């Protein structure tokens, strides 16, 4: 009976696998169509200064409004796009659109515009020959200054060196800023800081979650603040959800933060109306966000 059960479980597992594979392939094919069809769009989440809560930068986050499936989150379709290679076209679209939008905000709102736009770039894109050239082309076409673009990569993308690491050097040569995203969750986080030249560490939400807990729970976020300081890197605390976390992060030395406590990802229209309000007020008081501390 046990054998029987084992076998049926095995069969069911295989059927699930097939279903998932079909679903995967279908989603992949639909993605290929979605790029350039107007179904993809970007939301922008503010990165704010501590303790003032002023907007320092925005991060572009891709969304897919699927005609039947509705809003599909990137956690579901980015891995599919990475598998079937669509990420190269999708990522190029995200990069161009984010740079175009940022340059437009800078023209319209001047000093009140965020100073940087963060764009997530996956390992597959980074390894693609000519990626740095694509970035250079996009900057030239959109008129965005290289230093106003922050390319966000993961440790996993660059830990084994190779073309991805070369691409990071090429980006730096262009004057583009680079961040290690979800820092601390990948491979060889600390060793990487010696070989991969970056400007920003985005400290993963999983470490931020613990900052108001015990010393042990806060230990990694605390250490990463020290490491960033020692290496003269900027540290951004990701996924800040409460005022208490913001206060504690400030005490630990964090000067930049991102999270639902300050702002959720916003439509470009919402960013625009907040920027107009900021221009009208002048820049002394910034009520874009709730006071941080
Ligand atoms: P990420 O780059 O680490 O982006 C931050 C994610 O955390 C976003 O999720 C954001 O909405 C979410 N977040 C921000 N603050 C909070 C908070 O306080 N609490 C919680 N629970 N979540 C918060 P999103 O937009 O669903 O994106 C998920 C991931 O998908 C991103 O993580 C990034 O790795 C990837 N992604 C998004 N857009 C792109 C893209 O254009 N290209 C690539 N390659 N990947 C992308
Ligand atoms: Mg990111
Ligand atoms: Mg992140
Ligand atoms: Mg993250």
TrEMBL record:
The chain holds residues 620 to 912 of 914 of the full protein. This is Uncharacterized protein. Signal peptide: none annotated. It comes from Planobispora rosea. Residues 24-279 form the EAL domain. Residues 274-293 are annotated as: Disordered.
């Amino acid at each position: 009976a046990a054998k029987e059960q084992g076998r049926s479980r095995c069969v069911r597992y295989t059927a699930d696998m097939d279903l998932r594979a079909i679903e995967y392939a279908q989603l992949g094919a639909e993605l290929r169509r979605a790029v350039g069809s107007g179904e993809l769009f970007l939301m922008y989440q503010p990165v704010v200064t501590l303790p003032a809560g002023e907007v320092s930068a925005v991060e572009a986050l891709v969304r897919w409004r699927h005609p039947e499936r509705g809003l599909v989150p990137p956690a579901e379709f980015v891995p599919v796009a990475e598998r079937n290679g669509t990420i190269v076209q999708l990522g190029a679209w995200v990069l161009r659109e984010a740079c175009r939008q940022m340059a437009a905000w800078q023209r319209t709102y001047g000093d009140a515009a965020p100073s940087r736009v963060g764009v997530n770039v996956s390992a597959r894109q980074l390894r693609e020959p000519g990626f740095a050239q694509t970035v250079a082309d996009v900057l030239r076409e959109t008129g965005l200054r290289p230093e106003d673009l922050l390319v966000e990569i993961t440790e996993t993308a660059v830990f084994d060196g190779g073309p991805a690491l070369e691409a990071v050097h090429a980006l730096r040569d262009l004057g583009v800023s680079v961040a290690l995203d979800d820092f601390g969750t990948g491979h060889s986080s600390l060793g990487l800081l010696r070989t991969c030249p970056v400007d920003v560490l985005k400290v993963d939400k999983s470490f931020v979650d613990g900052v108001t807990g015990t010393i042990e729970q806060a230990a990694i976020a605390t250490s990463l603040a020290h490491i960033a300081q020692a290496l003269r890197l900027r540290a951004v605390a990701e996924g800040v959800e409460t005022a208490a976390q913001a206060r504690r992060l400030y005490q630990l030395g964090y000067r930049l933060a991102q999270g639902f406590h300050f702002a959720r990802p916003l439509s470009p229209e919402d960013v625009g109306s907040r920027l107009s309000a900021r221009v009208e007020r002048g820049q002394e008081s910034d009520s874009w966000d709730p006071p941080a501390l």
